[in-house]
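=== RUN LOG ===
request id: a7f3
mode: sequence -> structure
chains: 1
length: 201
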Amino acid sequence: MLAQPASRPRRARSKLLLRLAVTLLLVTLLCGVALFYPQHLLTIDSGPMKADVLVVLGGGENSERARYAVDLYRAGAAPQIICSGFGDAEANRNLLERAGVPAAAIHLENESHNTRENAQFTLPLLHRLGAKRVIIVTTWYHSRRALLSFRHYGPDLTFYSRPAYAGYPASAWQPQPIRGHVRGEYLKLLEHLIYYHISPL
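=== RESULT ===
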């Protein structure tokens, strides 16, 4: 009977250690999946649809975002395009015009320096255009954070995601800095959650 009080703390410690081990294993597995299969965690693709405006975000590699916006415009996804991002907006507009998109269909938001500002600074222009349904065009690894940022700051509008898939397969990561972008995205998702209360889910 005297041994029972001592055995209870040991059982409690054993349960705690087991829980910690299981938690550590799950975190390790999740980190492995996140690093080796980011395509499934970071990509949001709403699929083919019609909207009022395409919003092309600056950044990416080799202008794949603007080039994909050209494809979507030609397919009739939306009649208007907003190019968002300091510096990149003008370059993307020029690419769109060279590809045959009418200048009157292109609008610029060229003050934003990050994804959060892309959303905040583009919203007034979307409202002036009378947009209700909006397609965000970015790169696949950026699509989750971009879409959730726009939904967070523009709850009165409906946002969709049609990402460009440049560098999507892991075999394409070596000649391009895709791996660095992928790792950075996880940190930025955490930053958006902590500082701006934008859930990554």
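=== NOTES ===
The mean pLDDT is 88.
The CA atoms of residues 140 and 165 lie 6 Å apart.
=== END ===
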